[in-house]
Amino acid sequence: MAKRCVGILFGGCSAEHEVSLQSAKSIFNAVNRDKYNVAPIGIDKGGKWMLYGTDGGTGFLLNEDDPKKISLKPNGTPVALLPGSGGSLVHIDGGGKTRVDVIFPVLHGPLGEDGSIQGLLKTAGVPFVGTAALGSAIGMDKDVMKRLLREAGIPIAKHTTLHSMAEAPGYDDIVSLLGIPHFVKPANMGSSIGVNKVHNESEYLQFVREAFRYDTKIIIEEFIKGRELECAVLGNDDPAASLPGEIRPAHEFYSYDAKYIDEDGAELVIPAGLSDEKIKEIQELAVKAHKTLCAEGLSRIDFFMRDDGMVIVNEINTMPGFTKISMYPKLWEERGLGYKALIDRLIELAFERNEKERGLKTCYL
Question: What pTM did the predictor assign?
Answer without folding.
Answer: 0.90
